[in-house]
Amino acid sequence: MGEVASLNRAGEDTLWAVVASVGRTHRVAEVFANRMAALADRAWREQQVFAYAAFLRSARRPVPCYSVTPIRRSDLPRKWQPLPALGFLHGKFA
Questions:
Q1: Which pTM value belongs to this model?
Q2: pLDDT band at 88, cuts 50/70/90?
């Protein structure tokens, strides 16, 4: 009973963000508690963009790039909402 239990809370505030980038604009598209889920979401979003690649080229619209990065909960914008995978087609990227 004389032992002190150490609680590792350093990682509790860390999430994994899928970040969409178009040019110099970066936006957190979605956040996940673990990296594997974030990587799966990034792959799904890239697949959706690939499916519309011909349309994007013909419309001369930039194609978003997706990456996965750690993020703290406190770094999310106050009114942050998830970005739909094809939201950039409807002008919802900005």
A1: 0.77
A2: low
